[in-house]
């Protein structure tokens, strides 16, 4: 899978991996904070952004896609920063290339299977938009609002609403492919213990990392550290960018 990606800066390589419904631009605030000291590679995962669509959608596949980008750039050693679903991709990469990973940073995601269906309203909204011929974002938002009540979530989703090759507007991500693979996205196949330097960054008000996940984290990432960002939810890097960027930089630069 030939992913779309962008490269900024120079130095040791940091790969930024977005979450579900996202794109490379979603971690732009992190990229801007790192690019003066590092080579920052921001990717569009398969079925997202400008990357190709595919029915095969496992974490192992997505991790292999990331490694293919790095191989094409002749980059052997690198660090990974992944948010949400992208955090699972980053964690899955440790099973494929543990010796190549310098540091692993996971933003608000645990290596567990989540059983709560969190995105039914989003999928209904995305499908609602695709039922209509839409020529501008404001019209798309009206259809989306029938199912997605939160204006912030609508604006996030609409970042991936763009003009297609046929001249009509549509979703850049593979809506039906994501729906078909939703159980895989929410799931997790436990991986062998990764003993490299690892940091989990949790939003205090988020329920993606919970006390009952500690055993699974310590089993798969026995040397992991944790950092709690106060008064933030799942989108901690957008809610408190300065704080999160400082935590990331401190971890990357620690002896």
TrEMBL record:
UniProt keyword Membrane, yes or no: no
Xref: Gene3D superfamilies: alpha/beta hydrolase
An example Gene Ontology molecular-function term: hydrolase activity
A Pfam family assignment: Abhydrolase_6
Entry superkingdom: Bacteria
Domain AB hydrolase-1: from-to ranges: 14-246
Keywords: Hydrolase
Protein name in UniProt: Esterase
